Predict the 3D structure of the following.
Amino acid sequence: MLTIRNAQLDAPSSPIQERFGETALRRLLQLHPEECALLGDPELRNMVTRSQIKADVYGLITRGQIYQFVESTLLLGDDFDESPEYPWAQELLADKYRNPKVKAAKLQECTNRAIDDYMATVDDELLNEDIDDGDSEPHLDAGAHLS
């Protein structure tokens, strides 16, 4: 289990880290406005800070690699990297021998697949949901006019 101590969160960040945080915030707001709105500004900023620290622990070092971890955190949840819902995440991120560039690319691929799987599940649930609209009239058979 990855533990971030309060001292790590409270440590003064460098100007580079702060600039990256602001850039990441702008990009997240541009690409994922609804998800960002759900968190609100203070929590979104805290999430970016925590994610930067975690990304470093996992060996992600470039801005692009760190951003990918931040974005995955926003989309999958704060502790996606330890969640049993995403067993691939811990295996991928904890691999100290995997090239960070490859790790970040695989993280993006797996995050996208997790989102696609979730959306497919939601779509299936909606399609299979019985809708009781209170209308006792029989519904027209869409293919009835073809005979």
About this structure: The chain has one domain: 14-127. Residues 14-127 form one domain.
